[in-house]
Amino acid sequence: MNPEIGLPHGKKGGITQALKQQILFKESPEVECKEESETTGSYYRIEFKQEEEVTRSILLDFMFAPKKAGDGKYFEVEIDRIGEHTDVIVGYAIETGFDETRVLGEIENSVGLHRLNGQLNFNKRQLHSFEINPGIGETLGAAVSKDRSVWVTYNGSILNAIIEDNDKLAMERRINLMARFNDDEEKVNKEEKEFQKRRTASMKSKMRFDPSIQNVRPGITTTGPCVLLVNVGKMPFRAGIKELEHGLLQGPSFLESRFNCG
User: Where do runs of H (alpha helix) occur along the chain?
Assistant: First the structure.
């Protein structure tokens, strides 16, 4: 793991269960997985060995059923070795009908954040395209909170918070509000906060698994050979958020207080 891009040192991750030696839901001859350790904890080194431009998707052997307290999950994927044109997609999917040749987010009941173009897809729909292109040593992360809302991160920063207009549109909106409220800054700022709340709620409704869906698992898609370092919670996350520290491991109801917007 690369400590120079925000990985905290000297902090123990919140661990309440031992990691499995094998975290792949189903083994594949083109995917090799092994646990590795360093001073801050341990992670999984997953090598995808397929040919260039060949899609391979995997699910990790961590599942959570609906409507259970404390079942929010988070994991981070660091890029260790990758080709220039190889994409990595990080997200979640259900195991029922899962196809290892399909891309996360482009099939029903799945979500996927793309490395190459920052595209975020949920249930076969494109929701947003972030200005990111992670390289060696950088991370993508994905979380599902207690109410089944989906959250994605880049180098520990929560991307959902910036699913918003570009600078030009934001400025135009503020100019219109200033005219509407006769340059009353207090009223304009209050309206801006309400707008942000409505937009967050709208995006949240678009990025939420149906609570009745069973067998939701974390997953990764790649479109060529690469090596990824997967942190499921046995070492500190880039996110550095207390509610996330248990990751995919069994822990308290994190994510709930931070991300669930009422």
Answer: 167-180, 185-206, 256-259
20 contacts: CB under 8 Å, gap ≥ 6: 61
Yes or no: say if 77 and 220 are a contact pair by the CB < 8 Å rule.
Answer: yes
Q: What is the pLDDT of residue 248?
A: 82
Q: 161: which DSSP letter?
A: G
Tell me the pLDDT tens digit for each residue of 80-108.
999 989 999 999 998 888 889 999 999 98
Name the residue type at position 261.
Answer: C
Give me 208's structure tokens: 């939420």
Distance of CA 148 to the CA centre of its chain: 13
What's CA 193's distance to the chain center, in Å? 25
Separation CA 245–CA 120 (nearest Å): 24
Sign of torsion over alpha carbons 141, 79, 136, 53: negative
